Amino acid sequence: MSGYVDLHCHLLPGVDDGARTPEDALEMARALVDLGFAAVAPSPHARPEFASAEVCAARRSALQRDLDVAGIALRLYSNAEHALILDGFLDGLGTKATRAINDGRYVLVEAPYRAPVPALPDLVFRMVRRGVTPLFAHPERCQEFERPGRAAEVVRLGARLQLDLGALVNRYGPVARRLARSFLGEELYAVAATDLHGPVDARVWVAKALAELAARTDAGRVQTLLRDHPERILRGEALP
Length: 240
Ligand SMILES: [Fe+2]
Fold this sequence. Notes:
240 residues, alpha/beta, TIM Barrel, 5-stranded parallel β-sheet, 9 helices, 8 strands, globular, binds fe (ii) ion
């Protein structure tokens, strides 16, 4: 695999609030390939109001076929975005109910945007103890991570953090941008991803965000965040 790997992307059509149609998905995929991506682990929301794991898996196979037919060089891997505080999430850890990244040890999980999670360190400890490495989606957009020192603390406990590239170009407001800059500067992020939900302006804002990332860190770190670490996560390997 050579090229960037997007571990947080709502690329599957008609399964959640991401791509609505196969045409949307192909347009998003074309933009990602043109911007340097070679693989995506589409991450539909694992919530009762959205499509089941089975439907998502079928949709992923269908999209892979569509990509291959269209000559769009993008490999797809299994994944889902779990809600940390959803009933049953912790109980399902380590079972099939949890849709780990490429069926490995990493699980993409999001904390609530607008609610504190004082028990977060304990939750991370319990996940790690069950053999799961939580990859926190866009911590810079989640209230609990505004607490000073919280991000570093959960990384120390074994969690990994995913930068939402859009935060760097202010898609989520000044607080998220400030935290993203700060966590990036502290080298707290393990990976960067798009959390892309649709094709509108995708090509433009993702390009701007990649340029902003490149301006804020060195070229080696960009490769680490967008290629090397995501590849290791797909293989279920520990990160250095
Ligand atoms: Fe997402």
